[in-house]
Amino acid sequence: MKTLTDLEIASKAKMQPIEKIAEKAGIPIDALELYGKFKAKINVDLIPKETNQAKVVLVTATSPTPAGEGKSTVTVGLGDALSRLGKKTMVALREPSLGPVMGVKGGATGGGFSQVVPMEDINLHFTGDLHAITTVNNALSAMIDNHLHQGNLLNIDPRRITWKRVMDMNDRALRHITIGLGGPAQGVPREEGFDITVASEIMAVFCLATDLSDLKERLAQIVIGYTYEKEAITVRDLGVEGALTLLLKDAFKPNLVQTIEGTPALIHGGPFANIAHGCNSLIATNTARNLADFVVTEAGFGSDLGAEKFMDIKARKGNFQPDAVVLVTTIRALKMQGGVAKQELKSENSSAVELGLVNLEKHVETIRAFGVQPVVALNHFIGDSESELQKVQQWCKTNAVKIALTNVWKDGGAGGEELAKEVLKALDEPNEFAPIYDVEQSVEEKVTAIVQKVYGGLGVLFTDQALKDLAEIQKNGWDLLPVCMAKTQYSFSDDPKKLGRPTDFMITIRSILPKLGAGFLVCLTGDIMTMPGLPKQPAALKMDIDEDGKAKGLM
Amino acid sequence: MKTLTDLEIASKAKMQPIEKIAEKAGIPIDALELYGKFKAKINVDLIPKETNQAKVVLVTATSPTPAGEGKSTVTVGLGDALSRLGKKTMVALREPSLGPVMGVKGGATGGGFSQVVPMEDINLHFTGDLHAITTVNNALSAMIDNHLHQGNLLNIDPRRITWKRVMDMNDRALRHITIGLGGPAQGVPREEGFDITVASEIMAVFCLATDLSDLKERLAQIVIGYTYEKEAITVRDLGVEGALTLLLKDAFKPNLVQTIEGTPALIHGGPFANIAHGCNSLIATNTARNLADFVVTEAGFGSDLGAEKFMDIKARKGNFQPDAVVLVTTIRALKMQGGVAKQELKSENSSAVELGLVNLEKHVETIRAFGVQPVVALNHFIGDSESELQKVQQWCKTNAVKIALTNVWKDGGAGGEELAKEVLKALDEPNEFAPIYDVEQSVEEKVTAIVQKVYGGLGVLFTDQALKDLAEIQKNGWDLLPVCMAKTQYSFSDDPKKLGRPTDFMITIRSILPKLGAGFLVCLTGDIMTMPGLPKQPAALKMDIDEDGKAKGLM
What we know:
The structure is a homodimer of 555-residue chains.
Chain A: H1 6-12, H2 18-25, E1 32-34, E2 40-42, E3 55-61, H3 71-84, E4 89-93, H4 98-102, E5 110-111, E6 114-117, H5 119-123, H6 129-149, E7 156-161, E8 165-167, E9 177-179, E10 190-192, E11 194-196, H7 201-208, H8 212-221, E12 223-227, E13 232-234, H9 235-238, H10 241-248, E14 255-259, E15 264-267, H11 282-291, E16 294-298, H12 303-318, E17 324-329, H13 331-337, H14 350-369, E18 374-379, H15 386-398, E19 402-406, H16 408-411, H17 417-428, H18 443-455, E20 459-462, H19 464-475, E21 483-486, E22 506-515, E23 520-525, E24 544-545, E25 551-552
Parallel strand pairs in A: 3-16, 3-17, 4-15, 4-16, 8-11, 17-18, 18-19, 20-22, 21-23
Antiparallel strand pairs in A: 1-2, 2-14, 5-6, 6-14, 7-12, 9-10, 12-13, 14-15, 22-23, 24-25
Helix pairs in contact in A: 3-17, 6-7, 6-10, 8-10, 13-14, 14-15
C-alpha cells in the first residue's frame, strides 16, 4: 500500500466549519472574521478575558536534521491527545514562511494525521500576515530612501542605515546589493541587503506586542540608522509609525484554524528560531491562555534556540511561564548527531543512536537549567527499529527523564495519548522556572550565561565589529535588553559540523544589532545568514496545480 | 459645515452582509469564500454561465490632473444610477496599488457617496491579490538567480535577463540596482531593477487569462531572458509554471464587494494604464457579463491610455466589445489642459476651460476612431462655476456630443441618473466598434496607427535600442502581437508638458519589451518609469490608526 503524503491526508480531512471550531473554543461569533469557510481572524477585543489562565506546554526538540523532527506534528498530536482526554485545549503555532515552502524544508503545518488544516492555504499565503509584514518593512525602507532623496532633513548617513528590506523568499542574490544607481533622479546610491521576512524586526515587534497601542509604540521606537553625528534615527523621527501600524491592523488579529481532529488552533506570526526569536505571537498565546485550560505551543529548532528565546524573551515579556516542556527527539536526529551521514539515516544503526544520546542529554540539561523537568517525546518514524527505540527509552529511564513514544504522524491524537498523560503528570509536579539571565546583567554576562548554561560551551569571543557595536549600544544605554542569538540550528556551537555534545568551544559574536522596537539585541554568531538560499532542486519544481484547482507537491 | 472626507463617508456607510449582495447578483452561496463580513472571493466554476451577455459600458476620461478626475467615482455612481433605474448592474474595477495609496494620489475606490466599500480594506491589503502577484514575480526571480548560482545548466546570460523583481510600492531607489554581490556564496553579480507590481507581466497575465489552465500556459510562455547564444529562455524551461500557478490559485478568484448604495462590484487585478494595460481582470469582467445585464467598468487614465488598451488588447482577447463609452471630464482637468498651474486650479477661469476644450475634443475624436459615440460625463466638483460648466455643455451641444452633468460625489447614484439615461440612449444606437489596428500589421504600422489615430501625432521615432529590440522580436516571430504603450498620462504626446491638443509631435519609442505571457509588446516612450517615486510629503505621513483600530488619513 502506498503511503499517503501529508497533502493527500490533509485534503481528505473532513473539516468542520470554522464557526463550529470557534464555538468549541469559546470564541463569540461576533469576534470572527471569516477567510473562506475554514479560516478566521479573531477580534481579540471581543473575547472574554478570564482570570483563570491556562497551563502552557512548550514543545521543543533536540538538534534537528534539515527536514525537521516533527515538532509541529507532535505539538498538534499532543493537542489532539489532550482533547481526547477531555481537556479544553488550544494549539498555538507559527505561520509558515514561503522561503522553506518553496525551498527545501517544506511547510510547517505538522504531518500525517497530526496536521493543522487547510494545509495548503496555511502553507501558501494563509491570511496574508507575512505579506503585510513584508509590506510594512519595505514601506519603511521606501520612506527612508525617499527622505535621503528629498533633501535629507534628518541628516541620515546613508552608510549607517541599519534597516534592511525583506522578502518572504529564499533569495541569496539579494543578500548584498547596491541601490539608488542611475543618476540624481533615481535616489541616493548606497549599500543595502534583503533579509527574509521572518528575520525582520517588524516580525519580532508583531510577535511581542500586546495590543495595537503597544504595537504602534514599538514600531515608533525602531532604530533605522544613524546621522552623520552618529545619533540614532527612529521611525518616530520619520513620522510614519501611524501608517505602519495601520498597514498591520488586520494582520495583527490571530488566525483560527483546526487540527485534522478538530482541536482549535491559533496560527499567528512566524519568526525563525535560528535568525530570530522563533515563537508565535504573544497575542495569540495570550488569547489561547484566556480561552483554553491547556495551550500547547512550539518554539523553533532545538532547545538551544527557540526554547531559550521562548523563556528568556517571550515568557519574560509576556509575564507567564512554560508549565511543562516537551522535548521532541527522533531516531534519525540522534543518528545524525551520532555521526551518520544524511543519506544513511534510513539504515538501522543502534550504535549511532547511542553515540547521539549525548545530544539528548545536553538538551535535557538545558531545559533543567531553566528549572523545568522535560518530558521526552520520542517521535516514531516508519523504519525506526525496536532496538534503536529501546536505546533512547533505556537512557531516559536511567536518567530519570519522563519519556513517551509518540505515533502522532500515523495515529493522530491517539498516538499522543501516552505523551499527554506524561505531560499531565509533569504539570502536577513543582516547577521552578526562571530565565537564564537577568536583563540587568551586562551584555557579555548575558551572552556568556547562554553559551555556558544553554549551549554548554566555554565562553564568548567578540570580533572587533561586535566590540564596536557593543560600545555604541552602551553609549546609547541600550544594554539592559535581553539578547536574541542568531546561531546555526545544527549544533550547540556556532559551527554546524560540531555534532553530538561539543564542550570545548567558544561562540564568536561577529556583530550585535540593537532592535529597540522588538526590545532585544540580536547577536550574530558564526556564518549564520539572515537570508537563506535555495537548494539546487527547490521544492517549487515539484509544486503544481491541476485543472480543478487542486494543489500538488506541497510538503 | 465641515465636508466629510471619503474615509468618513465610507466608514459611516451601512454595509449589507456580502451574502446579501451575492444573492442580489445571482451568485450561489456555495460559490462564495468570505473574507470578513463584507468581502468575498468567488469560485467562478460555480456560477451559472448565461448565453445572454450583458452590455458593457466603459468609463474613460480626458487627460487627468495628478489627483485624478473621479473616473472610479463616476463608474460607481453610474452603476448605482442604473441600479436605481431598475437595471441589473454590476461594477467592475481594478484593485488599488499601495504605491499611490502611500504616495500622492490616494486610493482607488471612488469618492464621496460613490464609493466601493469597505474602503479602507480595499485600499490597504484587500484580499491579498497584489501580494500574491508580487510573490509569484519574485519567486520566479529567485529561481532564475538560483539557476545561475547552481551551475547555470540553461546557459542563461546574466547580462540578458529581462525579468525584473517587483514591489507594490513607490520606491525609486530600487529602479537601478546591482545584486549578487559579496563573493561566490552570495549568488552571481548582475544588474537588476524593481518595477512596481502593477507594471509586471504577472499582473498582465493574471488580468488576461480566461481560466486556470490558460493562466498556467501563459505563465509558462513568459520570456525571462536569453542565453549567451541569444536564445529565449521561458518559464517552461525553468519548470516552475506549476508552482507559480499554484501560488495564484486563490488570488485568481474575483473579489466581490458593494457600492455604498449596495450595487454589487467586482474588484480584481490592477495594472496601471500608463505603464501597463490598465484594465481589471478579464475573468472579473466575464463573470460580471454572465451575471448582470449591465456592466460598468473603467480603464485607467485618459482615453489615449486605458481605453485604447481596453479596446485593442482586452476586448480583442476577450472577444467582446464596449457597447458604450463614457468620457469623464472635469472643469479643473480642462483648466489644467488650458494652461492653468496646479495651485491655481481652484480659481474660476472660464477662458482657461475654453482653452482646454481642445483636449476634450481630441478624446471625443479618439473614441469615435474606435467606432463608438462617447457620452461625456461632466463630473461636478465643489467650486465649479456655472459659467465654466456652461462652456463644456455648450461645446458638446455644438459638436453633437451627448453630455450629462454628474453629481455622484455629492449625491451618489441619484447624481448619476441623468448620465445613466444618456448611456441607455447610447446603448440603443448602432455601434461600429473595431480595434484601431490589426495584429497582422507590422509593429511600426501598429504603433503608427495608435500615434496618429489615438494620440493625434505625426508619427513614430525608434531609438537605436528600440530598433535592436524590434529586430530581435522579428527574428523570434513575435511581431504579430498587439502593442501596449507605456506613456505619460498628462499629454497625448510623450512629453507631459505638452498640454491641450498637441499635433506636431513625434512619439519616441526607446525600447520594446516582448511580453509573451501577456501576449503583447510593451513600447516604452519618453521618460516613463515603470517604478514611481514618492513625493516629498508622502500620503503615509497623514495615515494613522486610533486605539480602537479605526483608520485615519486614508484618501
